[in-house]
């Protein structure tokens, strides 16, 4: 096999339902990396309370995989472009199950953190391969529909994992780690339904495939949007349990339901709002709408004084998140030439998860100094600013297009 390979997209062909479902289930594994154990965070922190820096390290149980994903995803993208999608995907799914469940047997916080690092390696390979395969299998029109479905599936997977994780955490704080074994059920599906895309062994096509003018500037802006979104999003699983505790809610299952509410609304938004927002407002209008909805949700969380208020705030936040995530990936893949899909997928994956990793490092010192509600209100203000920037760019592009037509 040549070390350089491009992947042909079957124009206009209908995608088998089993193939689509397998891709969607694999995509849902990514949200499990953090959401599954979020409800047991308080109990885990209490178990290791005597450990030095337990407050920060217990939060790293959620966010440490994100650092590994961010570091490994670009390399996974290069491997995917050069050597194929399916074999790296199979290895990643197997490692996912092994690393995720190994925390059941760990008796030290350090051991759990090591298992989370390995889980991050697995998620990097899985998410990069799945996103690149979506680019290979689907036409642009099919891809936009699929990305909305993927966003919904990821959000629904988060709902199931959070609720099930909360119930298992009621039994024991280690319980949610058992959920990662479900990845093994997807190995036969990958073998049966995800064939390696056709490839032409042309180094020349790799070197000379054109990128449109302004690709790198636009792609850098897209990566920044993905990272800032994740920086905001990860405030919820890492800090919302502690905010709920402050207002008198200590149940892991209720914590799981609260976080899952945002995911459920995200799923509905991905399926129902995303296509309409894209067609009505366009690319930058979608960004403006998404960031504004998320900003309102964060602001409502910061002033919530009851469980019902938290639920409402999470629903509002989820509606913005559900229209943003599929838009980011759809825009990125639409911009990529065939030979770049793995690397574009890896870069998007890295930007999303570096934001998740960095989230506790800014939020925890901020919370220590100004309080937990201040962190949510501050990130809400930042999201409002991003929405304003998106509206400005949208208006400028609309004005430019109008002037061009008039000429």
From TrEMBL:
Keywords: Membrane, Transmembrane, Transmembrane helix, Transport. The chain crosses the membrane at residues 21-44, 56-76, 88-105, 117-139, 151-171, 177-194, 215-236, 256-274, 286-304, 310-332, 344-363, 375-396. It is found in: Endomembrane system. Its main location: membrane. It is a multi-pass membrane protein. Gene3D superfamilies: MFS general substrate transporter like domains. It holds the Pfam family MFS_1. The keyword Transmembrane helix applies. InterPro entries: MFS (IPR011701), MFS_dom (IPR020846), MFS_trans_sf (IPR036259), Sugar_transporter_CS (IPR005829). It comes from the Bacteria. Residues 19-400 form the Major facilitator superfamily (MFS) profile domain. SUPFAM superfamilies: MFS general substrate transporter. PROSITE patterns: MFS, SUGAR_TRANSPORT_1. This is MFS-type drug efflux transporter P55.
